[in-house]
C-alpha cells in the first residue's frame, strides 16, 4: 500500500476548500483516507484570515515512513518550510514561474526577511575602508 499526502476537495461550487490527507494511492480523491493532516483555503478573505493549517508533527511522521506528497501538497510543504524546494521542472509547468516566497502557516501571510539596518552596514563599511587605507600606507 503506497500512502500519498494529497488534497481532498470540499466546499461549494466555485469556492474550493481543501483538506490535506494521508490516503492510499488507489483510493479516489474524495474517498477513504487514513488521517486528516490539515487544511488549505486558496480563497481566504480580504481580512487576512487563515489560509493554511498543518499538523507538522504528523506530516513529518508520514514522510518518515515513506508517504509521497502530491505536487500541490509538495508546494504547500515547501512554502511552510517542511520540504526543500522542488525541482525546477516541477515549478516550471502549468503557466510559468511559481511564487516561492515562504508563508507563515498560522496567518497565511508572506514572511519578509529583515535585512540588517543601514547603520550597521555603514559602520562595517567604514572599518573596511580604514583597513584598506592602513594596508596601502604601510609598505
UniProtKB/TrEMBL annotation:
Cellular location(s): Plastid, Chloroplast
Keywords: Chloroplast, Plastid, Ribonucleoprotein, Ribosomal protein, Transit peptide
Single GO MF annotation: structural constituent of ribosome
Bilayer-crossing regions: none
Region described as Disordered: spans on this chain: 88-139
Matches recorded under Pfam families: Ribosomal_S16
Keyword Plastid set for record: yes
GO cellular component, one term: mitochondrion
InterPro entries referenced in this protein's UniProt entry, alphabetically: Ribosomal_bS16 (IPR000307), Ribosomal_bS16_dom_sf (IPR023803)
Record Gene3D superfamilies: 3.30.1320.10
Highest taxon listed in the record's lineage: Eukaryota
Gene Ontology biological process terms from the UniProt entry: mitochondrial translation
Family membership: Belongs to the bacterial ribosomal protein bS16 family.
PANTHER family given in the database record: 30S RIBOSOMAL PROTEIN S16 (PTHR12919), SMALL RIBOSOMAL SUBUNIT PROTEIN BS16M_BS16C (PTHR12919:SF39)
UniProt-recorded name of the protein: Mitochondrial ribosomal protein S16
Organism annotation: Protea cynaroides
Upper lineage: Eukaryota, Viridiplantae, Streptophyta, Embryophyta, Tracheophyta
Amino acid at each position: 500500500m503506497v500512502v500519498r499526502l494529497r488534497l481532498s476537495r470540499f466546499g461549494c461550487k466555485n469556492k474550493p476548500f481543501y483538506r490535506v490527507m494521508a490516503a492510499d494511492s488507489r483510493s479516489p480523491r474524495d474517498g477513504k483516507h487514513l488521517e486528516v493532516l490539515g487544511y488549505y483555503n486558496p480563497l481566504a478573505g480580504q481580512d487576512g484570515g487563515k489560509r493554511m493549517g498543518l499538523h507538522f508533527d504528523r506530516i513529518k511522521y508520514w514522510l518518515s515512513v515513506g508517504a509521497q506528497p502530491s505536487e500541490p501538497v509538495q508546494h504547500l510543504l515547501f512554502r511552510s518550510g517542511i520540504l526543500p524546494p522542488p525541482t525546477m521542472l516541477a515549478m516550471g509547468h502549468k503557466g510559468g514561474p511559481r511564487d516561492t516566497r515562504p508563508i507563515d502557516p498560522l496567518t497565511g501571510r508572506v514572511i519578509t526577511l529583515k535585512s540588517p539596518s543601514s547603520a550597521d552596514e555603514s559602520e562595517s563599511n567604514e572599518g573596511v575602508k580604514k583597513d584598506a587605507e592602513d594596508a596601502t600606507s604601510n609598505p
